[in-house]
Amino acid sequence: MPVASSSRQRRRREPSSDIEEDMPATRARANDDLEDDDDIAQAPARSSKKGRKQQKQEDDDDMDVDAAGDDDDEEVVDIVSNFQDQPIDRSHLQTLGGLSGDWATLRTTFHDKYYPIVNDVGASVAEFVEGNNGEKAVQSIDEHMRQLLDLEDEFRRHEAVVKDMVQTLARDDQIPNVIDHYEENVKQRGAEYKMKTSRQKYAKKEEYRKFRQAIFEVQHPGEAMPPVSELVPKENGDDSDDDDDVEVGGVKQDYKCPLTLTILVKPLTSTVCNHSFSENAIMDYLGQKSSVECPASGCKKMLSRAVLHENKALAKAARDAARRERAREESDEGSDDDEVIE
Fold it and tell me: What is the C-alpha to C-alpha distance for residues 303 and 260, in angstroms, rounded to an integer?
């Protein structure tokens, strides 16, 4: 029995000794794990320190870049401030020629669009608004017409200055400070225009003559309109007009065709002599010929289909004149009937 007991005791102790033998290895692994944990714990601290150094270096680099950028900006500002306008030469002829054409197109468009409207309004006001109100209304329309003429003259000033610049460059000359040159010349021409009197500005303008003609025909039917200068009040400076510039007045607008002696219908106007004819009448007169002598009394100019152009403004004026003539005839007939009844 004692022997058996001793054997069992030894067997029981064997596992305990195995555990004790395994303990050092387990402790070693545990220590290794702890050391690894320490390394991991210390790693962020080292990484953070390194990151701060790297961030500081990047900030320093950014400051250097900003400083360099400021230097570049200062250089650009210096270049711009020191840059001078370059003179233009013959190589800019085409560009300036196009600019002159743009001013001419603008002026022509303005001319064709607004003058006929003001003429129609002026004639209508003169015909249908009576008394003091009519006179004030006509005067107001007259002021608007003068403003249009002033604006057209401004277009002409710009166009003329550009043309002068083109001629200068065509002579192989240069124009320094082109903007100052342009603005000063336009300003000078404008100052000269403002020094003129109303007669000097408007009396010889064809559009103003047409405007006053349309009003005069309504107010004074059948009478010849005097020179426009007599319709514009005299101002200081008008005495200095050249004596050679004699304005012919006493002209009555005739809306009858020289061939048919009736009111113009679809009038065609000659560009060489400014005489107008009803379309069918002048075409029949031309027949198969390439050109004929103008049938207007005393005119020796030669007419062809190429020089005859439609005149819509004259067509409207002729219709209005015919309408007013019919209205006067009807009014006269009514007056005669009243006299008979009495």
Answer: 17
